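ok so I'm stuck.
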Amino acid sequence: TAEYMGEPTVSMASIHLLLLLLFLCTCFGPGFQQVTILVWPLLSSALFYVRSVPACWIIPLYISLSLGGSLAYLGIFNDPSWTTQALLVVAVQFIGNIALLIPLLIDRLFIRRFGGRAHLLVFPAAFSAVFLVLSLLSPLGSWGSFAFTALGLPSLAHGVSLGGLSLINFFLGYGASVTVFSMSQVSRWAKIYAATWTQVDNTIDARSRLIHEHTIRRPLSGNILCHPVSIFLYLFFCLSIYGSARVTIFDGTFYQRSVNDFALSTQRVSCIVGRNNSDPLGTHLRLTQEALLQGAKLVLWAETAVNVYSEAEVNQLINATATLARMHQAYIGVTYETINSQLPSPNQKNMLTLIDKNGTVAFRYQKAHPVMGVEPDVLAGPGVIPFVDTEEFGRIGGAICFDLDFPTYLGQAGRDGVDLMLQPAWTWGPIPLLAPRMNALRAVEQGFTLFRCSSFGESGVYSPYLDVYASKTILDVGTMFADVPIRKQTVTLYSLWGETFGYTCCVVALLSVLLLCLPFSLLARLPPSVLNFLAPGSSSGDYASGHADHNAFTQPLTYF
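replied:
not stuck anymore, here's the structure
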């Protein structure tokens, strides 16, 4: 049998069946074929498994998670088969899942040293902290975050406007901790209840039986209002109520206002998609003029619409579009890639230039996060998101494609009060299944309206309330039109405070590691209330003597 902290749980053969469940849940977890509800059995099973098995069996868990994650993203290079590029996906998963093991191992060590309910916060805090650090340091940004599974529960997804992806990750991790804790409590109660009743004389009267049953249940149940399951339900309902109210109340429609009072004015925008390799500039200028003639007041080109090889060609491109903008009193977002063949690689710049209705350059932007392995020759830009104030659209900002997968970077737009965010993009393979929905969460986080124009993928307009104003997938050369409601930025807590919640989780995770490293003699100096929170039943004397009460440090969590 497998032992958990000195007590038998299920048989070792049975517990290893969880590896198959974990593999399947990871295949349909945070990847291209998401099934939102599976994230709970995934995290709960992983937590239970790591707590229950000998340390050497964590390696099969790591392999199971990595192979499942590989299948979840295998087709990212437009070839879902075992090719050299697919092996790169597998390698990334094996590297990335080392990070997932960190919160699992911290939880395992913490619960073996401390038996109090403090461990319920350790895993979710460490889980949230690890994915925040990954989004800050990884060249893949927020890709792979479990928080994106919340897209299947829109009312929950609105929580990113409060604490970003870190809040959603914490919620998922806390749900896993509470699930495993509740399983242990139910199992322990059942065993104590059954064992106790075998010692009770069957001849005692009914009233004595009720008294006896009450004395068994009361110490096990405690204060139901403060039970971890109750706290989890509070959090779930608060997030759900907030998400629903954000759509039906906070958007200016309360209380039952007439549509005449809250309807927003609109402006027509257009997205020019695709490339004609024989004459890309001529094709885009023609499609842009056609869109302007049909009433578009803002035209955006998809990412890297044309290639230019000299400053003279750049000026020619800008002058041609400036003439159209001035003639039609409209704004044009021009995208191009500058290539300087006289310089060694990287020698390319991925650019977005916005021309205003007067025919002048409103801003220039260089892509700050080239895609790893896909844009090796592209130089990273300075990392400053530009903006310009306009009469028709409010404050317009811009960033290119992969830049929106770095939420802390997009915080610039939130702090600067951007109302409309332009995102020229280019995708391939199955990426359009997920990338537009991920980027739509940036609009919720920062409170702006997102205008995405993408080649070989979904173009659309997304509101800060997860509304989709327009959506169209164009695989060749084409045009999308949308009438965009014009609204000011919806100020969110996340746009004001950024990753404050995530950094708080980092502090909690670091404190947990520190408590694991402190010797007993130093732990004995902590206040009694802290000691009781960490390990109920232990005193300063237990720590000072080098060991605490066994029940405190090995609080049994027997599951089945």
